[in-house]
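no rush on this but wanted to send it before i forget. what follows is a protein written twice so to speak, once as letters and once as structure tokens for the fold. mainly i need to know what kind of three dimensional shape the backbone takes. thanks a lot i owe you, the record is right below.
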Amino acid sequence: MLPDALDHLPDTKRRELEHVVKVLFDSFEAGMQTKLSEKRKAGRILKIILFGSYARVDWVEDRLSGYRSDYDLLVVVNSHEFTDLQEYWSAADDRFVREYTLTHDLKTPVSFIVHSLADVNDQLARGRPFFSDIVKAGVVLYEAEGHPLAKAKALTA
């Protein structure tokens, strides 16, 4: 179930985002099953945060030109090892591309980035605008308990 912070979205967009979150979890879990060591099987998704135009409520769907804003997502995992896009996330990316361009099951393109919690917290502690903006304006779609984000350092002029 998606948070109330997405009440500004039409039901079709909310259902699409629920599907996107499920694909991310399913693809990551499938990637973990091929690992032999217990350490490499210990990967967890800690947060999924929607940012960008769909979080800010200024997305675009221009039927004349065909331009559509995409869903921008930050996926936060428990270790840097699990940020490897090829090893852990290519199946999700391939599925999003296929469902948008070929089968049209998704009406909105999906873009996601993956960072470890330690990296996101380091970026916030340094006051990096990109991550500070995500924390300030993003909408948390999923969050595991007990893994808070650092307080963002105030941005300088």
The first helix runs from residue 11 to 33. The chain has one domain: 4-143.
